[in-house]
Design brief:
The structure is a homodimer. By secondary structure, chain A is mainly alpha-helical. The first copy, chain A, is built from 12 helices and 2 strands. Chain A has a two-stranded antiparallel sheet. In chain A, strand 1 and strand 2 (about 50) form a beta hairpin. The radius of gyration of chain A is 21 Å and the shape is elongated. Chain A starts with a helix and ends in a 10-residue tail after the last helix. Chains A and B meet through helix 1, helix 2, helix 3, helix 8 and helix 12 of A and helix 1, helix 2, helix 3, helix 8 and helix 12 of B.
């Protein structure tokens, strides 16, 4: 069976090389994430943040803040994987501003089509794995998805507060909408939400965020 | 002991809040990583890549390519943590171009001072943890550090090849220097190095990278 074994090994080597080539095409395709710009601005240059930078910043938040998660035992690797891929769909679907309720109406449909194409570039087992991570993030039911969501909501609030509320002012966002949009942070990390509430009140007190309009 | 218990709990709460506040100052400080620009350019806009985007792209490489690591059982979480923090020192020390041998002479010293300051912003246990991750990455001895290094070297090569060798041309880099600088990829991921060698030869054949000068 030696020659058959040799053939088998060659087939295996070819298949591994094809698999790697496909994975690298995926890695190259998602380089595009660096050109998807968000509403939030960075603290130093005051230019809009892009999705790739944002995704890195969230990963950094996770490894720094994981101890504060509501869940006693959190699968930190799973949280990181989720956040590394969570915005890839925006390569096709674009960034949807968190307070743009019109664009949010068909957001999930647009993003699900993007997920089909982009995760579909990978070998089938990884298409399923990465799509599973994205679905889990979107459904926000597991402790890992809840914590990932908490940092995904907290980080833009932090940047907004430290840039004198630039993105909020530009879109006329008021305190009540910030609270309504972001209070889900508490489901993943109650302690972080307590911090965020005080931070937002600080922004109102400093005149960087308007209070709720009077009824 | 009820009142003593109450006092103890208040002390604990205060200490947890202080700890969180300190961690958030660290998270805000490293927002600066988004303004540290590298020699490599992104494939779409052709503008220089920054360290934050680069760090995210490496994390994506890790979760896509981990199966190809030389090490049979790789601690993927540790690799990710290493890569999330590996470039933070450049906030103070700046990016050192991989082929700038003059700047590389005192690079480690400059970066070690930066590590003291930046990781020192965290609570002491995390200062030690993150500094340990950075030291491990720098020493390149563990399977995790070797794999992290492999993707850190491969990703710029991929972007250079897909941007017609822009960064190589600008600095007059030749094939022999690319090989000498990056062959350590094989120590973490032999299969990725086999791919990289062919990719580099393809860049030479296409006229995007000069062959070694004749002796």
């Amino acid at each position: 069976m030696r020659s058959g074994g040799g053939f088998g090994r060659r087939m295996e080597a070819t298949s591994a090389a094809t698999r790697l080539a496909r994975q690298i095409e995926f890695i190259f395709e998602v380089d595009k994430l660096k050109e998807i710009f968000r509403q939030t601005i960075n603290s130093q240059s005051r230019r809009p943040e892009n999705d790739a930078e944002h995704s890195w910043h969230l990963c950094l938040c996770v490894i720094t803040l994981a101890e504060h998660a509501n869940a006693k035992s959190l699968d930190v690797l799973r949280v990181l994987k989720m956040l590394i891929v969570h915005d890839l769909v925006e390569i096709d679907a674009g960034d949807t501003f968190a307070y743009d309720t019109a664009a949010m109406a068909d957001q999930h449909e647009r993003e699900a089509r993007a997920a089909d194409r982009i995760f579909g570039l990978l070998p089938a087992d990884q298409t399923n794995e990465f799509r599973g991570l994205w679905d889990e993030f979107e459904e926000k039911q597991t402790p890992e998805a809840k914590f990932a969501t908490a940092v995904d909501r907290f980080q833009p609030m932090l940047l907004n507060c430290r840039t004198e509320g630039a993105a909020w002012k530009r879109h006329g966002i008021t305190q009540d909408r910030v609270i309504a949009r972001n209070q889900h942070i508490a489901e993943g990390c109650a302690e972080l939400w307590r911090y965020a509430e005080k931070m937002v009140q600080g922004a109102v007190d400093a005149g960087h965020l308007k209070p709720a309009p009077q009824a």
